[in-house]
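ingest -> validate -> predict -> emit
validate: passed (alphabet ok, no gaps, 50 aa)
predict: started
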Amino acid sequence: MMLEEKDSAIDNPFLTYPEGWNQAVESLVFLPEEMREGFLIQFITTVTSM
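emit:
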């Protein structure tokens, strides 16, 4: 169960933590460059659908 929670936090840091914006930015910094575009698309989609 802890592992699942950790995995979802990695997938959606901005949904899992109250300080979601900071988590998303920090995650983006550490992502490989080729993964950043997908992360940003997911982030924008999630935020706009709230």
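Confidence is low (pLDDT under 50) at residues 1-5.
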